[in-house]
Specification:
Blueprint (H helix, E strand, L loop, with lengths): L5 E5 L4 H12 L3 E6 L3 H8 L5 E5 L5 H15 L4 E4 L14 H29 L3 E5 L3 H4 L5 H21 L5 E7 L13 H10 L8 H12 L10 E4 L6
Parallel strand pairs: 1-2, 1-4, 2-3, 4-5, 5-6, 6-7
Length: about 240
Amino acid sequence: MADGPVAIVTGGTRGIGRAVSARLLADGWSVLATYRHDDAAAAAFSADQANLAVVRADASDAAACITVVATAIKRFGHVDHLVCSAGINRDAPVGELMDSDWDAVVDTNLSGVFRMCRAAMPFIEASHRGRIVFVSSVAGSMGNVGQAAYAASKAGLVGLARTLARELAASGTTVNIVVPGPTTGTDMTAGADAAFVAAISRKIPLHRLGRPEETAHAVRFLLDDLAAFTTGSTVTVDGGLSM
């Protein structure tokens, strides 16, 4: 059982989610991190982490979300916070985008977040200092050619978060959104060649991609007790790309 804060981090073994999990663990928190398919990355991350539980789960599966929360309760005794970082993309122009790809992206990136919140909310509210943070994307506010499903799913997180922020305020629970720009070490930039990275960097006022740890720092602030008066807000970590 955990004496300190306990957080569930979906997509918590890779990319931004991994950076969030690592930051919380470094601060002495207990973390249950979910992942979808990369067993090797999950095993490498979970080695020798006493306060970490790693669960393979599909964020779009309602039953899996319930199991994740139950596992966290069984392992740590309580759940205080939820960070939803799991996400997928299926890129194609709208005219070529298949229904199955649209459904897969929205079901994971938006509906999956709803399902995880629904499963975790009773326990988070019971802590009376709960925090929920969604990891969105600048694509949700700016759009991006070939990413209709991804952009729509990430934009939808804002409306969901602000509704939840109002619904959960009475319990002291806050709900906020972090909006990263292009970030190194993520599936979105994996395999990108130097020319592609340079082209993106030129569009960013700070002339570089973000680092996962920088987004994780913003998430960590929103999870802190000192962020208790911040709810329904978005924190953008994009080097000025969307301004």
